[in-house]
Amino acid sequence: MNKKQFCAFFIIGILFFSVLNVSAATTGYITGSGVSFRSAPNTSSSVYSYLNKGVSVTLVSTSLSKPTSGCSKGWYNISYNGRNGYVCANYVSTSNEEVKLKYGLPWTSPKKAIFGGADFIASDYIAAGQNTSYLKKFNVNPNGKYNQNGHQYMANLAAPFSEAKKSYESYKANGLLSLPLHFTIPIFNNMPSTSPHPVYGEEKGGLTTVKDKNFEKQLDAEKFPESYKKWLRALHETYPNWTFSALQTNLDFSQTVDIQQIVGSIQKTHLECILQPEQSTEPGWYIATKETVAYYLDPRNFLEVDSVLMFEDLGYNDVYKEETVKSVLKGTFMEGKDNVDNQSYSSMFMEAGKIYNVNPVYLASLSRQEMGATKGIAASGEKFTYKNVTYVGFYNFYNIGAYSSEENPAKAGVVYAAQGGTRNSEGVYVGNVGGEPSTPVVKPDPTPSNPSDENNSSNKPDKPTTPTTTPVGVHLNKMKLNLKGNYVTNVSIGTTAGTLKSKTDSSEITFKKSNGSTLGDSEKITTGTKIKFKSGEEYTIVLYGDLTGDGDVDSADLLRMRQQLLGKVSLSGEYLEAAHVYNTSGKVDSADLLQLRRHLLGKNQINQM
């Protein structure tokens, strides 16, 4: 049995993750709502269709026709859905930076979910130093934005291997393994001399003979230990275009194993993977033995062609083609076209990868792992009710926000995607249903009564609309906060109300203490603080570890946790949620107590996500 098969059968990751391949110079993005796609460059011509925000079009020419009444900048000649026509340049952008702003929450179509999720992964992980599949799980980069061993994308110890395996199959099928790929491989202090399989013993392999002296010099310059070199030599002999960088974590290996045992989980596939007696983190998932954690943490176990892709840089590269993405999606509902956006899924992943600087093959692999082969609730936009609130027309292709502690993680992920959405008269949150926009587009009269007046009301669909209040999701994104059910999270301990307000439009948000009084700008956010938006929506903030509601994490919170476990107190609401410091657990138990104790000892930081 290959060593990487260990505890990896039937692994399902716990993760919250173009038809025309044209350059940025010939791609335009619609920036308005209900923009007219016309037969000729004037506002009196017939309208083929109406294009919404974020739609990408092909610019037949980057030169503009002359301005006309109703269009002060002139007209772009474009191609869209196989048709040639014109769009007013007032509502077209050629800037990726501008189009990024169009894919914030809510995610009301598959394309918005694919783009919005790519933006989330790029900004919160890849750009933050967690730029490989391995680092997204085991955040050991000392140069990253977040504390080491915190801010992990998933609990599943085997997820990087699962993702790498899927990418390998796609790369192999499409001849990408011969490309000049680059890998960043972590190194720990005080690593064992070898990394034996905890059940089957050490696997033989690698290359002990030095055949390329120049490559050997490169390994020495990177300070790779001898125990890494035999595996890297073997990879180099087969794929000489590959390059490898060492990431010195400066972390003790055994201490890191202890921490990862607390924050990781393993699926129940082999009993030898799991602590005896079993300690469940949620149905079907358990705390792993230290030997199992060490196996998945040790990079040397995965320096083979079918798993080394977990160390590949996840940034965008022109070597990735749409055919490769198609091979990842083959056999799933994403193999063809999305009827809501009228675009193939493969081209959407390609486009999102290019805009947000993410490997599109990785995005497709991650989405496939999360969505499965058939459409579930996160990919269908179907109507459902969760916690007495009904939603329809929202999508989440990477299950971001699908916390395992929720009573229904899949639905919770779609609720996350609905942030910033609006309710109809029946109290239902409505996104896009069947491809129709949630707010009907007012179609213009092709022959406006006063064509010379660009602000004439009859020409409104050619202009971007501005909401009277900023959507809640936009505020949360700017403040880098998460919506987890009815709770707002990801607030750092010690953060003041003024600090959060400075990141967004402070006139539209108010912080309230648990007693109802307004929180001053210099006062600390605590568990129980209410955040109220101008739209009328209100949520309760949770600081994990702050069980007493004073905004700190100290011995008083540890005492409260012990009292909860002994049955001397009964925490509820936001205070019970704050006790879930081991955040993959559906109940407060000894794992949470251990995590809180390690935080107070300075051995790890509580993840506020």
Keywords, please?
609 residues, alpha+beta, SH3 type barrels, 4 domains, five-stranded antiparallel sheet, five-stranded mixed sheet, 18 helices, 23 strands
Structure description:
With 609 residues, the protein is an alpha+beta fold. The chain has four domains: 72 residues, SH3 type barrels (Roll); 145 residues, no CATH class; 180 residues, no CATH class; 139 residues, Dockerin domain (Type 1 dockerin domain, Orthogonal Bundle), CATH 1.10.1330.10. 28% of the residues lie in helices and 15% in strands. The protein has 18 helices and 23 strands. A five-stranded antiparallel sheet has the order 6-5-4-1-7. Strand 2 and strand 3 form a beta hairpin. Helix 2 packs parallel to helix 10, helix 4 packs across helix 11 and helix 16 runs antiparallel to helix 18. The protein is globular, with a radius of gyration of 26 Å. It starts with 26 loop residues before the first strand and ends in a 9-residue tail after the last helix. 47% of the residues are buried. About 9% of the residues have low confidence.
